[in-house]
């Protein structure tokens, strides 16, 4: 089967009920045409007011995928979801005894010291940056020196480790002091899909998927 142009929304669920471990790949959905724009605005506003996301199915790259549709302004974000059998259930160890009150207080102080706003620009792919530097050095014929990899000392005394972390400078301050100008890099951000309505413009498949429209058709029960 080819990629579908219809997102079949089967149900709406509270946003908080969708565990991020099921998230796979994100896409921006843009309306293609005035009718699609109005449809997305109305559906998106109603979903935002209700605090829900849409769960449905979409044919992408000849494969049916479960997707989540989340309203964002005049558009939407579509996130492909992993199937249940693709996600392992956690097997965390059971808690044994009460948590030390002093260590808990120090951990809380560390969190307060390093709490801030999420800024995606601070987080770079250091592997890709190092790889580009190595390639540029090879092209220019410069000697390549292997970087030293620091191995942290094993934690023997948790209390001492917490106190040491509390005395350290917060990462945000270090970034502000040592931030370098970012080099041009390939665009590795999430892809986007247009949402035309029936009778609108048709576009050829680009990269991964064809344009898709949002529909809330009901499914017939067996």
Give a verbal description of the structure.
The chain has 222 residues and is an alpha/beta fold. The protein has a domain of 105 residues: Ku70, Chain: A, Domain 2. The protein has 5 helices and 7 strands. It has a 7-stranded mixed sheet, with helices on one face. A hairpin with a 2-residue loop joins strand 3 and strand 4. Helix 2 runs parallel beside helix 4. The longest helix is centred in the N-terminal third of the chain and has 17 residues. It is extended, with a radius of gyration of 24 Å. The protein starts with 5 loop residues before the first strand and ends in a 7-residue tail after the last strand. The C terminus is likely disordered.
């Amino acid at each position: 089967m080819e990629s579908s142009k219809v997102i079949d929304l089967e149900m709406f669920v509270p946003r908080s009920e969708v565990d991020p471990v099921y998230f796979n790949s994100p896409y921006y959905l843009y309306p293609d045409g005035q009718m699609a724009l109005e449809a997305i605005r109305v559906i998106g506003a109603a979903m935002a007011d209700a605090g829900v996301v849409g769960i449905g199915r979409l044919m992408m790259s000849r494969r049916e995928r479960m997707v989540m549709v989340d309203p964002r302004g005049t558009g939407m974000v579509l996130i492909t979801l992993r199937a249940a059998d693709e996600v392992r259930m956690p097997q965390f160890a059971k808690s044994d005894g009460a948590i030390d009150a002093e260590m808990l207080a120090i951990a809380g102080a560390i969190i307060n010291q390093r709490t801030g706003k999420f800024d995606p620009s601070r987080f770079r792919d250091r592997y890709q940056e190092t790889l580009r530097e190595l390639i540029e050095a090879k092209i220019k014929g410069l000697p390549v020196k292997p970087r030293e990899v620091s191995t942290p000392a094993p934690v023997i005394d948790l209390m001492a480790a917490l106190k040491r972390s509390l005395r350290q400078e917060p990462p945000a301050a270090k970034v502000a002091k040592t931030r370098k100008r970012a080099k041009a890099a390939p665009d590795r951000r999430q892809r986007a899909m247009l949402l035309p309505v029936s009778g609108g413009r048709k576009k050829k498949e680009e990269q991964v998927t064809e344009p898709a429209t949002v529909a809330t058709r009901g499914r017939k029960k067996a």
